[in-house]
Structure formats: structure tokens, C-alpha cells
Amino acid sequence: MPLQSKIIIFFAFFLSIIVFQWAFFISHEEKVLKEEMAARGSVLVKTLAELSREPLLNFQISRLEMQIDSLKKEKDVLYARVVNSEFLVLADTRREQEGWIYSGTIALIPEIIFEERMLTVREPVIIMDSIYGMAEIVFSLDSFLNKINRSKMLFIVIFISELLLGIAFALFLEIQVIRPLHKIASGVEKISADSINKSLTVPGLPSMEILKVSKAIDNMRDKLRKNQDQLVSKTRLATMGKIGFNLAHEIRNPLEAISGAVEILSSGIEDSSQEYSYLEIIKEEINNLNDYLTEFLEFTKSEPGHRIDIRPSELIHDSLLLLGPLLKKHKIEVSDYSGYLQGLWHVDPSQMKRVILNILINSIEAISGPGRIDISINLYESSLGLTINDTGCGIIPENIDGVFDPYFSTKKNGSGIGLALSRKIVEQHEGSISISSNDVITNTTGTSVIIKIPIVEG
Ligand SMILES: Nc1ncnc2c1ncn2[C@@H]1O[C@H](COP(=O)(O)OP(=O)(O)OP(=O)(O)O)[C@@H](O)[C@H]1O
Ligand SMILES: [Mg+2]
Q1: Is the beta carbon of 448 within 6 A of some atom in ligand 1?
Q2: Closest to 106 (Cα-Cα) out of 70, 127, 144, 132
Q3: In this structure, are residues 131 and 108 in contact, taking their beta carbons and an 8 Å threshold?
Q4: Which of 108-117, 203-212, 350-359 comes out lowest in average pLDDT?
Q5: Alpha helix positions (H), 122-207
Q6: Are residues 269 and 344 located together in one domain of the fold?
């Protein structure tokens, strides 16, 4: 059963209990008040009948009048009278009624009669077992009815306020819980491969708990998406690796053969001849192909090689040594890398050097004229970070998400493997690599790459 129906049923039940309680309370109050009035009336009329015996016997009208007048000050008494057995009204609080003939019957036993707005109590006046007359008192029920009406009004006011409170509570639940829950449910149902990036929007004013739930779902979806991306990229890499590995081997063998044949051919030809220069071009292209294959095979390797404890600064030093001539040629200045120089990485040095070289070569390729590369080493919680900043052309925002994808390249002769391979190596060393570019805040172009690898403890 939906929560909404449950709440409505609960409120209907709750309100009917209130109505039932009040109905019981009011009828009980009415009964008690009536009993009280009847008891008081019968005491008063009995006393009047008792005191009327002697004056009635002796026909002492003024004594009778005195007695009934004493009842005038009693609460709610409308009038009182004493009637003799000949139906003659002997004494009445309303004097003009005296001497008139009583139109009703003489009560033989005590009588208590409730009418719409009046209570009549009658008591026979008995002397020596004979009925000599009757005493009668009539009370107004106005104050009694007012009391009951006040209780009823109070009940109506309380009932309406509780009803309004119930409606307000139901509305509150609807806005804060039910509607957002429906939205979340339909949002979760609609999550598909296309909409996995869209976060859930909960309308209205959802409660904190609902917001927490929708946030948790968003987080779960983000993790799912990341896992899905990773799975896709891992599967792609694995397939590529398998095909590529075989293909690379198959290509390498004929390349070796071609290379050998070219060597033999060029040994018999003059250095200055046209043919020799063609053979040189073939050799250079074979070398390029070989380099490409080496990089590709490296990429398909699944585990890093032998690891040692080494300072990142040492790896940078070696890489810069290799790139010295290239940096000089392009008039690129490299800053003194400073910072946390004591820390050690536990890495395969040749693979990590490959990563640093890839990043530095990207920077060199991005700087068209003279420029700078700034390198620094910093400590981040449990890892040691290496930052390489350049003053190159930067990366346009549309490309930034794709630079780590294998074969993504904006360069004419780029293979697009450099950063993909670097990320693979860094992740195999339990580290992370990130890239950012074109700082809109400081309005500077250039690229910044940060590699974080766990620092060797102790
Ligand atoms: N420092 C940088 N400045 C500007 N763009 C960069 C930088 N580093 C990477 N990129 C961009 O990222 C792309 C991918 O880089 P990656 O190193 O993976 O491949 P590549 O340099 O194109 O080819 P290669 O495999 O030969 O290195 C580059 O083509 C370039 O567009
Ligand atoms: Mg590159």
C-alpha cells in the first residue's frame, strides 16, 4: 500500500478516535449534570413539601409564601408553588398565579420531569397517609445547556485545529518526503547508459534525509560510471594488448629482415649517390617504426619491472641529461627543481624515467618559441608529488578529458600513446597522474602535470 494511503488511513482513524472520545465525554458530562440537577431539585422539593405540611393543614398562606419565597434565591429556579388537593394554587413565587386552579394532576409520588429547557420536580404533601396537596419547583435548564454547548464548541474548535494540523502534516510529508521519494524512484528507474552522468534533481523542499539519499545515489552512480569507464578502458586495452602484441611481433621480424637487407644494399653504394640517400630514408623510417613498436609493446606490458628505492630528483636529473640538447635547441629554460628532495619512491626506474621523458617531451613540443619548464617536488600526505609546469600552448577544454586515452593526439606525427602509457605505469606503482591547463583564474596558458607516488616510509 502506498505511504500516502497509509497516512490518510492513519489520520482518519486518529480523527474518528477523537470524535468518539468527545462524543463519550459530552454525553457523560450531560448525564452527570442532569443527575446533579435532579438530586438538588428533589432535595429542595422534598424540603418544601415537608415544611408545607403544617401551614397547608392550617391554611396559613403567608407561611407558605415565606417558604416558597426562600427558594427564589436558589440558582436556576424559575418558580415554585404549593397546590392543595382541590387543585387550588395556595402559594406561588409568581404571586399573580395564587388563587388560580392548577391545570395538571396532583403527583401521588415524587416526580422528576426533564423537558427541553426546563426541569420540573414534584412532591406530594402527605399528612397521616393522606395527600393534602403538592409542592412543585420548576428549574431553568439554560445554564446547564450553556455548559454543554460550551463543551461542544470547545470540541469543534479542537477538532478543526487537529484536522488542520493533520492536513498541514500530510502536506509537509508530501512535499518533504513522498514527492521527492517518487522523483528519486523514477530518476533511479531512468538511469541508463546515456543518462549516467546526470545527477538526480529532487524538486521542492525535500528533507535532509531525502537529500542524503539522493546524494548517496548520485555518489553510487558516479562510482558506477567510473567503474564502467575503467572496465571499458581495461577491456579495450586488454584486447588491444593481445592483438597488438602479436601484430608487433609479426611486424618486427620482417622489419629486421628489411633493415638487414638495406644495410647490405647501402654498403655497396656511394655515400653521395641518390640511391644512398633513399636507403638512408628507409633506414630512418625503419628506426621510427621500431621505436613505435617498442613503445607499443611497453604499453601492453602488464607489470612493472624490478623496483628500487630512488629519489624522484635523480630520475629528473637523468631525464634532463638525455633531453639537454633538445632543450637547448628549442631555447627552453628548466627551473632548478627544488622542494622535498629527501623523499624516496619505490619504483622501476627505467619505467618512471619513461614517464618523466614523455611529459617533458610533450612540454617541449608544446612550447613553440623560447619558454620555461618548472619542476618541483612536494609532499602530499602519504605520497611524494612531482609537478611539471610548462609555458606551452596549453590544452583546450574539449580535449582535456581525452589526453590520457590511448591514441589521442593533436599532433601531426603523434602516436597518442605517451600519456596513456604514463598513466598506466604510474597506476601500476599505486600512484596517480593528473593534468590541468590554461588557468582561467590567473589567465595564463601552459600545462601542469602532477604525478603522485606513495613515499617510502621510514
Ligand atoms: N604539455 C602539453 N601541452 C599541450 N598539450 C599537451 C601537453 N601534454 C599533452 N598534450 C596533449 O595531449 C595529447 C596526448 O599526449 P600524448 O603524449 O599522449 O600523445 P602525443 O604527444 O600526441 O603523442 P606521443 O605518443 O608521441 O607522445 C597531445 O597530442 C596534446 O594534444
Ligand atoms: Mg607525447
Answers
A1: no
A2: 132
A3: yes
A4: 203-212
A5: 142-173, 179-190
A6: no
Question: pLDDT confidence of 357, banded at 50, 70, 90?
Answer: very high
Q: Whose CA is nearest to atom 1 of ligand 1?
A: 363
Counting the structural domains of the chain, the total is 3
Inform me whether the pLDDT recorded for 135 exceeds 90. Answer: yes
What crossing angle do the helices spanning 179-190 and 208-267 adopt, rounded to 10°?
20
385 lines ligand 1 (CB under 6 A): no
Residues 131, 218 within the same domain: no
131 shares its domain with 23: yes
| Burial zone of 38 (CB within 10 Å; 0-12 exposed, 13-18 middle, 19+ buried) | middle
pLDDT exceeds cutoff 70 at 38: yes
One domain for residues 317 and 244:
no
Same domain, 93 and 130: yes
Q: Rounded mean pLDDT of the chain? A: 88
Q: Which of 123, 148, 173 is the last residue of a domain?
A: 148
Is 410 close to ligand 1, i.e. is its CB under 6 Å away? Answer: yes
pLDDT band at 339 (very low <50, low <70, confident <90, very high): low
Residue of 323, 359, 362 to test ligand 1 pocket, by largest number of atoms within 8 Å of CB: 362
pTM over 0.85: no
CA-nearest residue for atom 28, ligand 1, is 409
Residue 200 belongs to a domain: no
Is 376 near ligand 1, meaning CB less than 6 Å away? no
Q: Same structural domain for residues 126 and 14?
A: yes
Residues 6+ apart with CB under 8 A from 88: 99, 100, 101, 102
Percent of the chain with pLDDT over 90: 47
What is the enclosing helix (H) or strand (E) of 249?
A: helix 208-267
Tell how far the Cα of 156 is from the centroid of ligand 1, in angstroms.
Answer: 79
In a domain, 424, yes or no: yes
The range of the structural domain enclosing residue 342 comes to 308-454
Where residue 193 falls among pLDDT bands split at 50, 70, 90?
Answer: low
Q: Are residues 232 and 347 in the same domain?
A: no
Determine whether the shortest distance from the Cβ of 357 to ligand 1 is under 6 A: no
